[in-house]
Every structure is written in C-alpha cells, then in structure tokens.
Description:
- By secondary structure, chain A is an all-alpha fold.
- Chain A is built from 24 helices and 4 strands.
- Chain B is elongated, with a radius of gyration of 24 Å.
- Chain A: Keywords: Cell membrane, Copper, Electron transport, Heme, Iron, Membrane, Metal-binding, Respiratory chain, Translocase, Transmembrane, Transmembrane helix, Transport.
Amino acid sequence: MSANPDMISPIKLHKELARLWDTPPGWGRFSAVNHTVLGKRFIIAAFVFFSIGGVLAMLIRAQLATSGSAFVGPEIYGQIFTMHGSIMMFLFAIPMFEGFAIYLLPKLLGARDMAFPRLTAFGFWCYIFGGSILIVAMLAGVAPDGGWFMYTPLNSGVYSPGINADVWLLGITFVEISALSAAVEIIVSVLKLRAPGMSIDRMPIMAWYLLITAFMMLFGFPPLILGSVLLELERAFDLPFFDPTRGGDSLLWQHLFWLFGHPEVYIIFLPAAGAISMMIPTFARHELVGYRTIIVAVIAVAFLSFGLWVHHMFTVGIPHLALSFFSAASGLVAIPTAIQIFAWIATIAHGRPRFDVPMLYLGGFFVVFIIGGLTGVMLAMVPFNFQAHDTHFVVAHMHYVLVGGFVFPMLAAAYYWLPHFTGRTSDHRLSVPAFWMIFGGFNLTFFLMHLTGLLGMPRRVETYPMEAKWDWLNLVSSIGGFIMAIGFALFVLDIVVQARFGMPARRNPWQARTLEWATATPPTSYGFASLPLIEDRADRLDPEKLGPALARGDGYLGFTRNGWMETLGVDMVTARPTEVVVLPRSTFLPLWTALAIGSFVLCLLFKFYWLSLLPVAVVVVLFLMWAAATGNREDTPPLDIGHGQSAEVHWQVERPPSWWAMTFTLAADGVVVTSLIFSALFLRVVAPDWPPATAAAAPTAALALAVIASIAAAAAGRFGVGRLKAGASPIAAQAACLLLHVVALAALAAGLAGIDDATRHAQAAMLAAVLGLAALHVAIGIIFAGFGLWRAANGYVSPRRSLDLRIGGLWHDATAVIVLVCVVSGVLLALAAGGEVW
Amino acid sequence: MPGARRAAALAVSLLFAGCAGDHSTLDPAGPSARAVATLWWIMLGGSAVIFAATTAALVLAWTRPRIFGGDPSRPLVLWGGLILPSVILVALVFAAFALGERMIGRSGSTDLLRIEAEGRRWQWEFRYPGAGGLATIDTLHVPAGREIEFSVTSTDVIHSFWVPRLGGKIDAIPGHRNTIRLLADTPGRYGGVCAEFCGTGHTVMRFEVIAHAAEDYDAVLARLAAGEAPEEMPGDRP
C-alpha cells in the first residue's frame, strides 16, 4: 500500500476523524447516527425486551406449574402469553439481529458506516417507541390478548372491542418500519459499501447471510404490514376484509400472517447461522468448508421458506393433496439446513479445534437446534400435524428451533465479539455455570413438553384439571424454566463484570481472520482510519498486520476534507471503487420524525382520526428536510481517494446507494400491491357470501383518466431528466409531472367517492383498498415531483447532478405501473362481483 | 440406593399413567389416532438415531477428525447433508401422504354416519341429522365401531374440534364447513377439547365423547330426543 501522501501522524488522523464522526456528548447523544453507537443501543434495548419477555415466561410457568392454578385469571393470562410471544418475536429476535448487523456489517465490509446512518437512527427510534407503546399498554392492563398471531375474527372489533388488539396492530407495525428500513439498509450496504477489491465472491460469509436475510425481510414483512393495516381498517372503519358475515374471510388473515410468519423463522435463524459460520472457522483454526455450497444452501432456504407457510394451517380444511405439497416443501427445507450443519462439522474435522466459551455455547446450539429440526420434520407430516398442532408439542418444537437456532448462537456471539465491543478479555468464571444452567434449564423445560403435548394438552390454556395427569410434566417444565432464568441472570452478571472489570485485550484475541478485528477495540466511531484494499477472500486476512497499517492511513481515504464524513462506494460485483459516499453528520431529524410517526400512531390508537393528519403533515415536512440536507449547488470535480485513484462524489454518479435504496423499497412496495391483489382474488374465490347482493361499481371513465394521467406523469418525469442531462431546464417537465399527478389523484378520488358504502361487503371494501393504495402512491408522487421542482428551481440539479430527479423518476414510473394494476384489478373486482362498470 | 430406585420406579409409573390419560394421543382408541401414534413412534426412533449419528459426527470431528478421511467435507456434507436426509425425507413424505389419504381421504366406508359439530364461545353443540332435531351441548354421542363424518363449523370465532384419542383435529371456522372422519373402536368415554385459542373461555371449552355400543345407539338417541337421560352410560363409574 502506498504511504499516506500528507504523512500526518496516526494520532492526528485519529483526532481529525473523531472530530467529524464522534457523536456529540450530553443531549447530543439523541442525535447519534453512528452504526457502532446505534448497534450497541439496538442490542441493549433488545436484551431489555428479552428480559421483559422472560419475566412473562416465568409468569406463564408459575401459572401452569400445577393443575387448577388460580394465580392469574384467563383475561390476564391471555395478555401474558400474547405479549411473551410478540415481544420475543418482534421486540427481541429481529431487533437483536439488526443490532448485531448494524454494529458488525461496516466493520466486516471495510466501510466506515452503514449506507444510511440517519435511517439506522430512525429505525432505532421507531423500534423504541413502538415497543414502548406495547409495554406501556401492558402496564396499563390493556395489552393485546388474542395470541401473537392475532387470528381473526377473535381479534376483530366484534370479539375484541377494546384497545388491546389496536395496540398490537399499530405498535408492531410501527416497529416493523425499523425492520424494513434495516432490510433496505443492509442490502445496499452489503452491495455498495465494501472495501475496494472485496468482490462479491470474496465477501465474508456473514455478509452473504445478512444480504439474503435482508432480502427475505424485504419480501416477508410487506404481507404482514398489509394484513395489519387491513385488520386495523376493519377495526377502525368497519371495512369487512376478514368478516365472514360480509364477504370477508378469517383465512385471509392466516395466509397473510404466515406468508410473513414462516420466512420470519428463517429471518431469525439465518443471521445466527452467519455468526456460527464466522465463529467455527476461528475456533477450528481452518477456513469455512464449503463457502460456495453454504451460499447456495442459504439461497435455497430463502426461496423454500416462502413456499411452506401453509404448514401452519394444516387443520383449516385445505385439501389433502395441496397440503402434501407444502408438507414436502417443509421437509425439503431440512436439506439445505443439514448441509450447513455438516459443513460446520466438516470445518471442525478439517481444522485443529480449540475450545473456548463460544464453542461451549455452540455445542448447546448443535444439540438443541438438531432436536428442533427433527421435530420440525415430524410436524411437517400432515397426519402427525393433525394430532400435534396447537398442543404443547408445537410449543416445545418452536422453542427448540428459536432458542436453539437463535439464542444459543447469539450467546456464543456475545462472548465471541464482547472483546471487540469492550476491548477487554473474557473471564470464564461465570460463563460456564451460566451455560449449564441455561442449557440444562432449557432442556428440562422443553424436552418433556413434547410429551405434554402428545398427552393432549392444548396451547394457551391457563389451567388444566388434575385428572388430565399433566401435573408432573408441567411442574418439571416450570422448575426448568426457573433454572434457565437464573442462568440468564448469571449471563448478564458475567457480561457486566467482563465489560467493567475485564483485563484489557490485545487486538484480535481469538486470532480471527476477518476484517472487523482490524479496527481498534473498542472501535472508534469511524471504524477504519483508512479503508483496506482486499486482495483475497475476506476470511483469509491478517488483522494483526492490517489493523496498524490502516490506522496509519495507508489505505484509501486516509485523510479528511471539507468536513465530510466519507466512505467508499464500489461496483456491486467487482468492488472497483466507483464513488465517494458522503455520509450525514449527527442529527436530531430521525428522532423528530420517529416522534411524529409516534404521535400519528397514538392518534390512531385513541381514534383521533382527523387529528392524525397533523403528524402526517409533520412527517412529510421532516422527510423533505432529510432529503434537503444533502447535495450541492455546484458540480464537484473528481475526488482523490488515495492510492493515486480518484472517484466522483456519490450524488454525481448514475447509481449511488440512495438510487438502489429506492429501487429495493419499490420492490417491497410491489409486494404490498401484489399481496393486496392476491387478497382480493382470494376473497372472491374462497370467502363465503360472494358475489354480494349489491356490488360496488367502478367508474371506468374516471379510473381510465387516472391511469392515463399517471403514465403521463411518469413520462413527464423522464422527459425532465432527459432535458436536464441535455443541459436544458427540467422545470417545465417537473411542473407537468406534478400537475398530472394531481389530475390522477382527483380521478382516483372520484373513483373512491363512487363507492357508496365500503362497509357493506368485502367486495366494496377491497375496491376501496385497491383504489386507495393507488391514490396513496399518486399522493407521494406529488411530493416527489414538488421536491424535484424545488431542487431544480434552487440550483441543486445540473447535468451531472440529476440524482434527485432520477430518484423521483423511479417513484413516478412505479406509480404509473401500480395505478394501472390497481385500476385493472378494481374494474375486474367490480365486474366479477356483478357490479356495474360505468 | 433404594430411594433412587423408588424414585425411578415412580417416574416410570407416572410416565405410563400419563400415557393412559383421557386426552392422550399415545393411547389411541380409534384407527386414525392409532396410525398417527404408530407414525410418531417410528419418527421418534428414527429421530433418535439421526440425533445420535449427528452428535457422534460432531464429537468425532472434534476428537478424531482422521476418521473421516483426507477430505472430511465429502462424507460429511455430501452424505450427511444431502444424500441421507433426501432419502429419509422422500420415504417419510410418501409414507405420511399414504397415511393421510387413508385418514382424511376416502376410506371406502359406505356406512358413514354424519354428525354436525358447531363451536361457539364457549361450548360445542352437536346435531344428529335424522334424530328428530336432536342437539346436545358439550356431550357427543357416537356409536362405537362405525365411521362418523363430522361437519364442523363455528358461529363466532375460530375453534378447533379435537378428540385426541380418536384422531386429528379440524378447525371450526365461521363461514366454512370442514369435515373430519373419526371412529371409536369400543364403547367408552373420550375427552375432547377446543384446540384453537378462542378467548377467555378457551380453557373450559371441553366436551366429552360417549361411544355407545352400536346396537344401542338408535335407542340412546331416541331417549335423548325425548328428553330423557340415557339409562346406562358406558364407562360410568359405580
């Protein structure tokens, strides 16, 4: 590597970088956007929620310890088990993995931060506020109580009239904003913000796992978000999407939920598997066996996981032959999982294994997860599922899979990366007894619970008669549960003691060969003082040598300029440096935006629907302020990046991270639209009471106008970009784009006004939903067009700085397609129900 | 140590007492439940073998890696990860499909009795077509030795109809009518529960199946329709 041209000392370089990248002290901490800071906050918050969920689990075990228990009644018990499941799934597992990903990913990839630091912070605040709404509701005694998968009609307005179900639907959807933003951010960061030379086939295996997981989130979460929105619309405005007496169907909810819910299991498992694939090579002292095979296996898992959601619904009355396909697919997913397990075993066999605390916890993982996988194959068999479904057998299976597949690997990861977080070494006095209490307590709780289920104990009963003879099994489970809880308490104590009093560690204490160990430990805010050039696979590096060289500034960008926080963007496949990505400084905007969304959620929760428009307006303004904070009024010449190379600043290249972020967001958006249209079709085919007695009609003329106007708006947007690139003014074209969107919105509003009563039947409600979704896209298109107009009028665009208009253009194009698809579906929905089309 | 032996004996007796419970799928009283119980014991045995083999592979990889030859990835990843699981899964999926067809599909029985089961919060109503509009609440009367097709629905939220000792469960979904076929081998009483969480009364939404001798069944229904209690119940405790 060439020497740092200015030959400033590493200390001076550190000070200059730290001045730019460090989070301000005091109240300024709330403005943090740094991935190291936020990764830690995510992890700590997730662990706090895990503890709350764990206390709820203890209450469950206290209640079930003996027959005829009168510890809590059914009303409270419903809240306890619903909150236990919801917290562990949505407030612990997903955010915990997000925290790990946010903390580690840039360090693994050789970047200084994630692609969208403000989005990281925004996701964090959405998570905290959404989670807090649930916890506060629980303390107020109005927590959700209809089960964590919120089946309808039990959770519809008729049977759950209180605020409880709204808390779940609104609170969890709020939290899911952070999941979706993390998904987009992880995908773009992995694809664009890698060290030069780290081509896609040299990425550390964890980056592959996280990339694939993030894609699964991008496609898995939209059906759940859509389902939650539809159910909340039903509860708030009586639109009968799930009401079987008015053409809705409770099974629609189950399909939407499990279409998310099954991939969710793998979304939780795969990041943990990625961590395992990082740790085992280190302790086996041999590189991962079957790097490419594992990648193929993980991609196979990702695809299969979207094709087996029906195995949660084997008893709803679907024909047996159809069930058998899902049964076979569910069994099939065991194969890529087995390939990963045996690749890990082969890595150990190839190497010279060395034992340490993380390996102890990974031993626990192997035992628990394999048992969970085997019972999973059992449950995938339709006849057995008919007996075991909805019993404690399923409860046991699911805990073996999730605790085995996520909690044990994460505990191992905690011990493995703790020296990185704290710069201190492990002290094994408490970690070993903690392991044996967690492992022993876990198996005591859940192993015999399989039998409890087979002896006929259903899920979610708050008590059981003594004659059922389930007493001793439940008592054993309860004792095991408390032992496990003590084990977790020891774990917390151990972590605190190590973080506080551990011996300072040298760099890379495990002799790992991946890039995260080339940072200082604990890491600096900017991670790398200069960015490495990677010339081999990223799990064959030498952090001991690389670290000091990078700290000296020997790599790329080993300097500061313009007060900019810079990192490198690369070509997705070859990792040739393509642009200098200028990242935003600490800002309170993410906090304010999340607060505004939080007020919106509270308005909906307390049914102040008109008032809720106010926070929506604030959110729009705040997002415009995000967008306005970047960019430049002058063209920037190519920038020196070190090594005698130069690159454009990111807003002057064709496809910078933000362009890709919009593309992937639109992919998730496409899943929402597709899911809604699938839902309409599903109701038409499956729901009772179709066609409706009086069908809602679709005004074809107005809807045709909407389609034409939104296609014309997209064309105007494209024309504007063309004009700009040719050196002419795009203002007229942008204005036309804006006006055409307004026309389209008016036409869609006319179409919506034509539905006289959307509460009468699901056909009318679906028509309203389809047209409403189209209108929402057009309305956002107006904002994009207006923003483009403002940027053009104020000199932020030039032939080389067309990004603002091109990102808007992506939205306009997508909106044209979505309006067309929604209008065609709406017209078909009217026709198929025998409604008029005029 | 006699104490330890006594504790072990107690544990074993408790285990078997558990297996004989009124809701135990492992104490089948009809062909469906029996087939699933058999499937379970086979899968349990197979799983134990697979678990032992995988754990052994892990331990050997750690302690005696040379046992797998010069390139351990071939026997482990190819055989352990791909070939063996594929063979086992294909066999299992087909066997389970055949079993499921026998359970749910057409059994060939022409002597099918129909009973309607309707769940509502929080009780079960059973109706017996052809028995003079007879309906019973939370008690289901069936003839032993005869296959019955239950037509299951709900008037409010989703419930699930389950008699563990006779066979699998089927959801009672408002707006839908699902069917399940069950047969009780011998006269007796069998416990039934709602298996799908349906609100605060979910726990108490239990019912009892009384299987009568087939020759007495019509008389029992007639007496019930006339508002009398059936004189003698099978399994009545003295």
